Input
Amino acid sequence: MQPNTKDDDYLQVNSDVLLEWRTHPFRHRPWQAPVILSAMAFAVLVGYQLFHSPVICIAAILMVFGATSEYWMPTKYKLTAMGAYSKGLTSRFEIPWAEVRRQLIGEDGVKLTPLSKASRLDAYRGVLLRFPDGTDATTKEQVLTTIERALVDVRAIQLSGESCND
Output
């Protein structure tokens, strides 16, 4: 994964967009909000009981909101000719196609990981691309097909480069 140094990172600027979509879990699953708000209220109450400080209460609200911002705010996803890109309110992740070693396809999305073997680090490496939630025209099948096509293209380029060097 490449570190982001600018808003217009290299995956977004230097290549054509193959597919783009966004997800917004709050709009699609509003019944989960009371659970998160209850946890936030509990954190505020405990913080106030322990410290008797409104600053701690505000910090508790901000921490719970930050931890759940992927639920409250939309996340944008892009598949470009160079790699995969995910951008939320508090996070930005990208991975070039050349670094993708495995795809972990789940019910909610696909994780592109640079790790060639299963590892405890899978949760912390790579980019999770959540499947579209029905709010736009992009489908799960389009996402998986575009990823497969991009990976095949990159592997073909890598193999042709290796055969030229021999």
Summary: Residues 1-5 have pLDDT under 50 and may be disordered.
